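Async update (no meeting this week)

Hi team, since we skipped the sync, here's where things stand on the single-chain job. The sequence we agreed to prioritize is pasted below, unchanged from the tracker. I ran it this morning and attached the output directly underneath so nobody has to dig for it. Comments welcome in thread, and please keep replies under the output.
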Amino acid sequence: MPENTPHEIPRYKFQKLDVYGLALEYADIISEIAKRLPGAERFNLRGQIEAAVAFVVLNIAEGSTGQTDPEQQRFLSFSIRSFLETVACIDLIERRRYVASVKLIEARQFGRRLFVKLQAFRNSLE
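Output:
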């Protein structure tokens, strides 16, 4: 059950995690990049990077509720794998020169912060 006080919107455990907030911000950055991809990539690279970043966020949420520490670690590992998929997509976007490098640098820098937090959170559950 979400924790809340009267008159507050209920918040679930995962919504209070710093790493979840970072993942949402990263998803916003990736979404901006995806919107700039050419129409020919709509069902390929754009769909792939959008799905991958969504799975980063969704696995944090799914792993946080009612799970044992090993189970939560497993879902955080899924988040990390999906994050790394976004990195590979960014590499492809950069190689094909679809998006200005300044946007990609922002994504890489922010993504690095998220990656470190994801790993630290997963390792804290050992």
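Quick observations from my side:
The chain has one domain: 13-124.
The domain at 13-124 is CATH 1.20.1440.60 (de novo design (two linked rop proteins)).
Reply here if anything looks off.
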